[in-house]
Amino acid sequence: MLSRSPISKEETRETVEEILEAYPAKVAKKRSKHVIIRNPEEIDQEIAANERTTPGIITQRGCAYAGCKGVVVGPFGDCIHIVHGPIGCSYYAWMTRRNQYKTREDGRNWLNYSFSTDLQEEDIVFGGINKLKTAVREAYNIFDPKPKSITIHATCPVGLIGDDIQGAAKELTEELGLPVVAFNCEGYKGVSQSAGHHIANNGFFKHWIGTDTETEEIEGFTVNLMGEYNIGGDAWEIERVLEKCGIKTVATFSGDGTYDAATKAHLAKVNLVMCHRSINYMATMMETKYGVPWIKVNFIGIHAFAKSIRKVARFFDNPELTARVEEVLTEEIALAEAQLAEYRKRLEGKTVFLFVGGSRAHHYQELFADLGMKTIVAGYEFAHRDDYEGRQALPKIRVDADSRNIEELEVEPDPERYNPTRPPEVLEQLREEKVIGDYEGMMPDMGEDTLLVDNISHHELDVLIKRFKPDLIGSGIKDKYIIEKFGIPCKQLHSYDYGGPFAGFRGAVNFAKDVDLRVNGQAWKYIKAPWQK
């Protein structure tokens, strides 16, 4: 991953200049801070992020509502998630990410349903709060067994007309006898879906985490999977290996997640954070209130998985567990490597662009490296600077007006349930070793003269494709088909193009097969974009 870009420094600089020349002067000045040529010799190299997209620029981003309901809350299958807003908003966040959920013995599973109040013009004029209450009661009464919880998600019109969804949720919680949780995640909150992640974290922490007061302890080497959304079954492959090692998953946020497990999440010994951006808030708050530390992990790629699972073993520092982990890794890596060998022969030296949300543009570089492929341009849709530069950047990040839209919870140690899972001196040592509480970001893993582009626009993507001619682009649905009209295969890494799992050892083999079919497919040479001469 740290190898130098195969594109010359001169061509990279010329490409950046070409990108910026197309913009008006003020826009070019702003965008220049978001397009960075990686220089490992520059200590504390910075990149602008989490800023408003310039009006008129076509962006990959989603809204706060999409981040809250569509990403973080929606994958809980034993709860009913009601969207308070127009039907289009409901449809947008329904089944677009291919989160997988296994129905438990109790029969609760509403993941495939789209619940909406379907606001009309008269509701905007006269208010929709009574319609919301009716919808919640109706959803509760229709199904048996009853949902474990009901969530309410506000869209833009609801915030504009002032419907009191928090008051309605409180009233309905008392009336129905189950937690009804409202999320004021109107799409305009914040500059991207990242704001919605934060809102979802706050809602979970206030209303779900720690509400199981009967279970006192869960024995064994217990973890929570956080920021893992089980797209294409990723969480099941991760849990397969963890279970094989003797590590028990208490709760997952949120892929294949259940309400009961979430209420017990504070009892896990450590949180394993996959998507740093979408879940770091809750990981930090759980450490403060309950003493549960967190480990930044990456389960995408065989060597990344091995490194992460060894960090977990180091945290528990149990000889039997460590030996078992090494035994499992030896077996799994050998099997995966044997299956990857043929694919690597055909993929070695191929180049990749990665423009994916949260942490995936970082995670998948590890898996492409396993295949002998080089990521030469990468960026996030909705990241903050710490996702690029690491958490050491946090003290230098200015809190702007958009960030102040999101509530910051005041969290203190729980006087009765604050229970550090390791002795203080051990935790301090683990911090010094950067096993817990640390994330160095994507930038340190980017090789010299590679390019980082935050919140890329279609114009910038067009220029980069024409100049660098990558063999594959990993991106999202909004730009997938534009990319493929250039004759470049695009691997959709938000919902996996109906494939997966791609996490873990078996996932790496699935991914290699998929990428090989795309990169070495013959169809691309016959494609010529309509606008190309």
TrEMBL record:
It is an enzyme of class 1 (oxidoreductase). Residues 63-516 form the Nitrogenase/oxidoreductase component domain. The keyword Nucleotide-binding applies. Gene3D superfamilies: Nitrogenase MoFe cofactor biosynthesis protein NifE, C-terminal, Nitrogenase molybdenum iron protein domain. It catalyses: N2 + 8 reduced [2Fe-2S]-[ferredoxin] + 16 ATP + 16 H2O = H2 + 8 oxidized [2Fe-2S]-[ferredoxin] + 2 NH4(+) + 16 ADP + 16 phosphate + 6 H(+). The keyword ATP-binding applies. NCBIfam families: N2-ase-Ialpha, nifD. This molybdenum-iron protein is part of the nitrogenase complex that catalyzes the key enzymatic reactions in nitrogen fixation. Its cofactor is [8Fe-7S] cluster; [7Fe-Mo-9S-C-homocitryl] cluster. Tetramer of two alpha and two beta chains. Forms complex with the iron protein (nitrogenase component 2). Keywords: ATP-binding, Iron, Iron-sulfur, Metal-binding, Molybdenum, Nitrogen fixation, Nucleotide-binding, Oxidoreductase. Pfam families: Oxidored_nitro. Its EC number is 1.18.6.1. PANTHER family: NITROGENASE MOLYBDENUM-IRON PROTEIN ALPHA CHAIN (PTHR43457:SF1). This is Nitrogenase molybdenum-iron protein alpha chain. One of its GO terms (molecular function) is iron-sulfur cluster binding. Belongs to the NifD/NifK/NifE/NifN family. GO terms for cellular component: molybdenum-iron nitrogenase complex. It comes from Hydrococcus rivularis NIES-593. InterPro entries: Nase/OxRdtase_comp1 (IPR000510), Nase_comp1_asu (IPR010143), Nase_comp1_CS (IPR000318), Nase_Mo-Fe_asu (IPR005972).
